[in-house]
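Exercise 7.
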Amino acid sequence: MEEAHTIVLTAAKTPAKQRAIRISSTVDRVCNEAYQNGLQSASLDKLIDIITLPNELDQGSLANLIKNLYPASKVSETIVTKVVGSLGHGRAKPSYSTQAALLKWLIMVYDILDNHMILSRLYSILFGLLDTIAIRYT
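Solution. The predicted structure, written as tokens, is:
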């Protein structure tokens, strides 16, 4: 599993035309493993970094990764902060469809957040994003 994460991380930094392998099969492997066993905190943190930071992955691979972010334990405040920090306008932000998928993921994992108060602390940021129509109806 760790090897697949490393391959995805490397591919996220490499433009598609310069990659030696097709990344979709590796993403599928990571997603299958996540579906079957869940993701430990360290693995979840790495995947959130790949998804939220500027990368070279195609939209389909990103959507597949987000749909399969199944935590095996409580979701830490750090991960929630990274997800909320990736929302909004800007060149360094993920696409709006990725942002909407991340918001849906936050809603789905709400019950297993390590500390629910983190969303109260980040409320002003979320409220400020209401003008972003692409993520408003999530």
